[in-house]
Design brief:
120 residues, alpha+beta, SH3 type barrels, 6 strands, signal, Lipoprotein
Length: 120
Amino acid sequence: MRASVLIKSSLLTSLFVISSCATTKYSEDISQNNYSNLKTGKIYIVEKKDGSPKEKILFKNIVGDNIVGTKGKKDSTEVTIPKSAVASVKDRSTARVTGGAVVIGAAAVAAIVISSNRAD
């Protein structure tokens, strides 16, 4: 009985983790990348290909081959990132919701495992 519950719990946890991807990765070929999923007014975390620190931006628009935004809602310093330098873009709000869902899912799995151990 314990093994059955443990297997079901681990499958449920892996389902949460797999379905919680909030990052969009981009390829070397700029013409193949689709930046239409970036929404104006949302905060994104941009990871660059050159390994420089991740940059948090409030997305404004795309001008030519550049992604344009500001450093945040309170800081209006303009940020311009070339599309060719972008490795991935992470939606910060989706990542927070996903992180919360993973924590809640893990707590539920732990509760199931503990209760099944006590039932035997």
